Amino acid sequence: MPKSLAERPTAPPPTATPVHATPAPDKRLAQRKRRDRRATWVVTSGGVAIIASVLGILLFLVWQVVPLLRSASVEPGAAVAAPRSEPLAVVGDEARAFAALLGRDGVARVVRASDGTVVLERPLFDPVDGAPPATAACGAALLGEPGFVCGSSDGRVALARLRFGGAAPAIDLPFSRRLDVGSHAIVACAASGRGDSSGIAVALADGSVRLVEQTVEENLFSGEKTTSDHERLLAAGAPIVALALDTRRENLFASTPDGRLLWWELRDAAASEALAVSVGAPITALQLLIGDQSLVVGQSDGALSIWNRMRGDGSRLRLGRTHDFPPFAAPVRRLAPSWRDRTFAALADDGELRLCYSTTTRILWSDRSPLEATTAVALSPKNDGVLLATAGSLQPLSVESRHPEAGLGAFFGAIWYEGYPEPAHIWQSSSGSNEAEAKFGLAPLLFGTLKATLFSLLFAVPLGLAAAMYTSQFMHWSLRRAVKPAVEIMASLPSVVLGFLAGLWLAPRVAEFFLGIPLFLALAPVAVIAAGRLGERLPAAWRHRFPEGSEALASIGVLAATLAAAIALSRPVEAAWFDGDFVRWMREALGIAYDQKNCVVLGLAMGIAVIPIVFSIAEDAFSNVPNSLVSGSLALGADRWYTVTRVVLPTASPGLFSAVMIGFGRAVGETMIVVMASGNTPIMDWSPFNGLRSLSANIATEIPEAPEGSTFFRTLFLAALLLFAVTFAANTAAELVRMHLRQKYARL
Asked: Domain residues for 380?
């Protein structure tokens, strides 16, 4: 029997399935806001960090450069008592602990600079016949050490060498004698030498000049030294005020009261007549600077100038005025050259004292002398002090002049360097010794940077933009998917590899087949147009076998064949028109030099590095043009080329300009390709066949050799600051132009 409903088993109640509660709308909104705040904080922090990093780099560069523009600072020390004899010359030691004074009485005295105590004195003349008064004297770095040369009223002349090192100072007399001058007193004297050999030039009251040379030769086997003297008479033809003799005793300079500068070339043993140059007012002071190339001339009208030997119209050298300082208000009476660079001190009769630098015509410091009636001035060997001396008083000055060769004129102006026929922009950081002039002209480096950028962009921009326009607007989509990634991969090529290939492989082949480049540029358009016309004449059945846009592959083959033909024709063309060697013909017929590593090679190598960047950004700009604009233009009857040039190109112009400027920034900052493919020659010449040196390449090659804190070191940071400024200015201008173009074509 069927069971009743009460007896039937009942199904268990359904188990409750857990359901995740959906947050309320307010809670979801709060979570979204928290995520937005976190993202905003992260993005803002990243942006602020980038801006802070850029500003930090800028401030660090400025901090390194600012010391270059500071003037010298001078602090007077405590004046000390000195011997009462009027000092004719004064010399200090490197530690500024002692000072040596040569008095009018012909006695050299070494005093302690701190209190003026005389620790050593020695007469320079033999006192047997009485000590004659000194009538002329000078002190400088003689014989490689500090020393004095002194002449007397009865024709005696002496050379003293000062030795400050060791336990106590010492004074040696390697040369002392009496010349046969009759009744004529010595009115001026100068000395120089190296090692044991020395030379002394004296001018007498009758206008004659005597040159006495002492040569010491050592026997290599026995070690015995033989001393020989040689005396030479030179004709001046006028009274002499001052003399200056170079270290190698090859040139002697003198000044006359009538404002003439005399020059004897001593290498010619038969020459006794001097070359005379009129300088204007009477010369009151004369000194050679380190290196014996620059001659400082002070005159009675306060004029202060630099004279150099330079090549004249003929083969003989001449004296030329290269630098003029602002004149003093009184005659220039004392000149004290530096032992290390082109710094010198100048003192006028009215007490005005200046520290000057000859190469850049820069006045480092100027003020009144703290010591009245100064009769002797000297710079310390380390350029960190000045000694002023007068009868009974010695005044030391502390000098801080870390970068005298720096200045805006030195970095960017045309400087008349020693031995050059005219002012020039020159960068030459290395030299054999301190005697060489510092040449820190940044103009050739800035010029080289812009020149390298220009030649690379001339090659990269047309190809990059044209390739981007063709790829995005004309190429078949299947090829486009492969071409764009392939070109973008080119951007990952290390620049050092490109520079290596350009310098060692490309440069020799460009020099060998140089005519192939203009031949290819002339034949390529003709070959591509001819191939296009031929393709149009092919049967339709053949043409339709290939998808639209695939003609790029045929164009690549045509261009490759044209390049091979141009290279093959370069040799016959050279043989027919250029005597078999175009490079030699260009040098002989046109006077144009050809360097193997030049701007043509550099432009090709840097262009390969810049093209992927320009192409990628430009292709994105073309592809981002709305399809509605293109479709509307085509629907109104415009053909594809008209649509691209009149609609797509203006709309994409902001992005295209950004592509060009980013490529500009890439080229400006390029280093390794320029180092390896440009020849690194810092010259200012627009010829594409010469090399160059850019700011970035110069920093990379020079910074390992620059002593930290030196002028050279800080000048490289100035070059980096210039590079920063050029890039910043270019990017700022690019952004302004891009925004203007974007607003202009926004209506499209």
From this structure: 78-404
